[in-house]
């Protein structure tokens, strides 16, 4: 899936949790000092009384009530475990069942309070019967530890009335109810938006696409939610515009084929969270004094746009796999005959190609990290070295690129991946680009640019040369697609 189809800026806790997963802890910003002190006071009250408490939680939409309730263990880890989200019918048995099931995942000797978030009843306060069930549940501690039930509410009168009703039947609380959710300080909102944008997408500096949280004034918004919603809307609109900017979206994968069996320096030039996706800042940093490094350093926004709009990746094709592909899809190869490098047929080429990062990438399999499967063939390495000795210039790489197009076609057919056609060194019909390989899918064209090199080209000594090669390819694509006239 093209990265432009994945980019998003969540503006609510629920969507943030879906996109960030376990990384959400890195996005959480502590609420006000008063709110944290209230959590601690409630914890002391609960432990002293040895029974739970209902906490009406008031705040306008977007204040951060759900984030506050779902993250109590972050704000007061010594007192609370993770929050149980409750969405069922509000009955004593329903609450007991939910908390007992939730407690099964907790340590057997857990002595911390279980927060429960009732996040589906705003402007719909509990009936007398439901409030009675809540009171009974809080007094019985069915999970053998007390619970704190948070009831988020956007209507102040409803929150006040619920607080009054609860305290009439259970007594005064140690804090003033309802608990007013204040959320993070305004001066932190811009940085929260930037961090959210980066972590949820696994790509840094996305603000350079044209929607920068620093350009929005937090004082013009009532709540953090409103602030995030405005930026989210305009960021998502910008992503749509980028997707629509081309007649047919073009992606690029730059494939390094050499004696390097592992990605080597590519690990320093690509995203740590999206395998193989280029990192613009890193590319420029390692070759800052070169002509191409200086050119891109003056155009950081264009570089980010080019990488994102092209879903630009850099990948390694190991020498043994490359030699297997050439040997097994070519009709004859006298060079390999001299080496007595046996030919097993196209099926072997497809197998070996499918095990590589490039093979997984073109077939749509998820890339998470480099994985070398099996023992590299010594014959394959020797065969690749022989290819290198005869040279990759003077048009000799054209045949190699044709062999790659053949194995890609066979691999896609073998994997059942639908595509329209595969071209080798042919001009795209809608722009002046002539990729080494171009795979026409229904929704986009995947271009692959190969660089065939002698020696272990992805070693540390070639870091600047590798970065310059990539940056030159990106500039050529940006020019041919008319994103710049420079």
3D architecture notes:
This protein is α/β, with parallel strands linked by helices and 486 residues long. It has 20 helices and 10 strands. 45% of the residues lie in helices and 11% in strands. It has helices at residues 13-20, 33-49, 65-70, 72-75, 92-103, 128-140, 156-170, 189-201, 224-244, 266-269, 280-285, 291-297, 300-309, 319-329, 334-339, 346-354, 357-362, 378-390, 396-415, 463-480, and strands at residues 53-58, 84-86, 114-118, 147-153, 179-180, 250-257, 313-317, 421-424, 437-440, 445-452. It has a 5-stranded parallel beta sheet, with helices on both faces. Helix 5 links the parallel strand 2 and strand 3. Helix 13 crosses helix 20, helix 14 (319-329) runs antiparallel to helix 16 and helix 16 packs across helix 19 (396-415). The mean pLDDT is 90.
Return residue spans where pLDDT drops below 50 for at least 5 consecutive residues. Answer: none
| 3D shape | elongated
Strand content: 5-15%
Radius of gyration: 29 Å
Indicate the mean pLDDT.
Answer: 90
Please give the number of β-strands. Answer: 10
Task: Give me the side-by-side strand order of the main sheet.
Answer: 2-3-4-1-5
Specify the helix fraction band: 40-55%
Terminal-residue CA separation: 30 Å
Question: Largest sheet, described in full?
Answer: 5 strands, parallel
Structural class: alpha/beta
SSE string, helix = H, strand = E?
HHEHHEHEHEHEHHEHHHHEHHHHHHEEEH
